[in-house]
Design brief:
The complex is a heterodimer of chains A (about 240) and B (about 120). Chain A is mainly α and about 240 residues long. Chain A is built from 13 helices and no strands. Chain A has two domains: about 70 residues, no CATH class; about 160 residues, no CATH class. Chain A is globular, with a radius of gyration of 20 Å. Chain B is extended. Chain B has two domains: about 60 residues; about 40 residues. Classes of the chains: A mainly alpha (about 240), B mainly alpha (about 120). Chains A and B meet through helix 2, helix 3, helix 4, helix 5 and helix 6 of A and helix 1, helix 2, helix 3, helix 4 and helix 6 of B.
């Protein structure tokens, strides 16, 4: 007699193999949908893949920690991928140097707007202190944002989720915002996406235009560094705000 | 591919070591990116392998966010309790950041120092 299906499931649910495989499967399915939609930002591959995975894990009663034991191999590549952003940056360096002033001014204004507006609006609508602290670095890429939150006493795993939702919102909405502003310069579009929506926005920008992608990568790197400096300085203000 | 991946890891490692060693607030991978950028300037561009491997990695950058994003299932409770402040905060703040960044850049670009003008 062949072994019971439930026994196979016992093996699979305890092994990292399943978490890794379903991550890749879900993403590939989501990416196919995205391509078939004609790269429509509303069919964001991260959003669709995450929705599929959450449904699957909930339906099978699998814990997130068990899933992550496998998925961490994909998660780990965020580090080397961040380093690899130096290459498009190098390729576009001439254009970046020519735009040094707008780049630095846009970075400072955008970075402050991202932190302060998120915290203020969250506070206005009654978010708790730990949520506010976890919200502050929401516009920078996951590993950086989680590191910042850890330092200021927020909840790193909540930050990871808020960061990704922010990235998806930015990737979804950027086109409509820029079109409404009648803004066409691919460098500025890319840079603003990178400041507001980090890696997910950058991934979207690369799919649209190489120059946009390079500027988004630059923005994501610079904003990661600047936010890591700004948020710890603003943290006492955030805590005080929450206790009011 | 192997040598390119090793290079990326070495730069990340260097970034991590320097960031922790000097207790810098900048995260290791970002510092690694800076180091690789400097190296590229010094040797005038990436070798072909590094170029292809990085391109492949960055092409599916969004895949790398999926495991962390799935973590939303752990926070469904908090998200359900605070969904309104969270959604409004993320939505309005993201749009505001896009608009402010783009506007400031456009303004700074439109006011270049004309030739002969004082800097």
């Amino acid at each position: 007699m062949s072994p019971d299906i439930s026994q196979i499931w016992v093996y699979l649910s305890a092994s990292p193999l399943l978490g890794l495989t379903i991550t890749l499967l879900a993403y590939q399915a989501a990416f196919k949908l995205y391509l078939r939609s004609g790269n429509n930002p509303l069919a964001n591959p991260v959003l669709i893949a995450v929705a599929m995975l959450v449904l699957f894990l909930t339906a099978t009663g699998t814990r997130y920690e068990t899933y992550f034991a496998g998925a961490q191999f994909v998660h780990f590549l965020l580090g080397p991928a961040t380093v690899a952003l130096a290459i498009p940056l190098y390729t576009q360096f001439k254009r970046v140097r020519a735009m040094l002033l707008p780049v630095l001014a846009g970075l400072l204004a955008g970075s402050l707007t991202a932190i302060v507006s998120a915290v203020l609006i969250g506070w206005l609508f009654g978010a708790s202190q730990s949520t506010l602290l976890s919200l502050a670095p929401k516009s920078v890429t996951t590993p950086i944002a989680m590191g910042i939150t850890e330092r200021i006493g927020g909840i790193p795993s909540l930050t990871a989720v808020l960061v990704i939702v922010t990235g998806i919102l930015g990737a979804l909405g950027a086109r409509y915002v820029f079109d409404a502003m009648k803004l066409r310069d691919p460098a500025i579009r890319g840079f603003a996406i990178g400041v507001a929506a980090h890696g997910i926005g950058t991934a979207r920008a690369f799919q649209v235009n190489e120059q946009s992608g390079a500027f988004a990568a630059l923005a994501m790197g610079l904003n990661g560094a600047l936010t890591a400096l700004l948020v710890p300085v603003l943290a006492p203000w955030i805590s005080q705000l929450a206790s009011r | 591919m192997l040598s390119a991946l090793t290079q990326l890891l070495i730069f990340q490692l260097a970034g991590e070591v320097v960031a922790r060693g000097l207790a810098l607030p900048i995260p290791g991978p970002v510092l690694g990116m800076l180091f690789l950028f400097i190296a590229l300037m010094l040797r005038q561009g990436p070798d072909k392998e590094l170029q292809t491997t990085s391109q492949n990695l960055l092409q599916h950058l969004s895949l790398l966010f999926v495991p962390a994003g799935t973590g939303i299932m752990v926070h469904l409770h908090r998200v359900a309790d605070e969904w309104l402040p969270l959604l409004l905060s993320l939505l309005i703040s993201t749009v505001a950041t896009l608009v402010v960044t783009a506007l400031v850049m456009k303004l700074c670009q439109r006011a270049p120092t004309a030739p002969g003008e004082a800097p």
